[in-house]
Amino acid sequence: MEETELAKRMIAGDRDAFAELMEQYQEKALRAAYLISGNHADSEDIVQETFVACFLNRKQLKNPEAFRSWFYKTLSRNAWKTCKKRKQEQPAEELYPADMPAPGNLLSELVLKEEERVLYQAVLNLPVKQRTVMILYYYNEMSIKEIAAVCGCLEGTVKSRLHSGKARLKHVLEEKKEGGSPWTILS
Fold first, then answer.
1. Number of Cα atoms under 13 Å in the Cβ half of residue 120
2. How many folded domains does the chain comprise?
3. Please, what is the average pLDDT of the chain?
């Protein structure tokens, strides 16, 4: 069933429609929450809190076509609150030591290659709002307009965060690169 129809049914209180939406969003939501928070246990809590908040506040969603933006706005804000509580602005090495594999299977695909692991560490070092914009754009393939709605900021702010985030990542990755070819991820 189409997302908009499921959102309409969820707003009306249909738990089955909500369960189907949860199933559709579960994996990407966990990935986004993990990449924002940098903590596997926190990401599961963030996603659970987001689903509960979305169902409890379903009547606030006036436009069912905007479910995706509304959902990620709720998720991002929950993740930001968690980061603020836990002060997640710590070095990536503390969150993801080089000799320790990613927890669970959720991100195992992202860290298969050395470049991806280093990129992941660099993303965790970005400020939380910059990191969120990068994740929503590159991992969740959201448009700049959608991200602006999710983050509650102007499209220009989103573009600025993307530009400065990419520049910061490029700088960090170039520093870590020891000779050889340029990073294929940034090409």
1. 25
2. 1
3. 81
